[in-house]
What does this fold into?
Amino acid sequence: MGESDLDKLELYHPEDSIYVEKKNGTRVNYFIFDEFEVHENVISPKSAQEWHMHRAIEEVLVVTSGEITIRWKDEGGIYRETASKDTVIRVRNSIHTIENRMDQEATFLVFRMVPEGKNKRDIIKNDKVIVP
It folds into this structure.
């Protein structure tokens, strides 16, 4: 992508993604960019992902349909929360798994980035410029 392309709006469709059907009952469309990734997970009824963690990646999940159960390990215990549509989950570097205990599919978006450890809240909150 050339320097003049940096300000161009881009649209991506499922056929532009990397599509994976996993043995654990999850179907994923990965959209991978230079500095972040977005993917959509569809998790089958009565299925669960493997326990896992990420060393450098920060994940934020947004449930878009159905209901998922997220379990995580912390201080020697295992904790569980149920999340439904419009719930946002910040995973951080926890050891976690995602389950669908329901009888219908659940869908969630995952935003992945590699944080630099810098507080960018002011930029994020104040970066919008109204253009006539």
Observations:
- The helical segments are 121-126.
- The mean pLDDT is 94.
- The first strand starts at residue 18 and ends at 21.
- The longest helix spans residues 121-126.
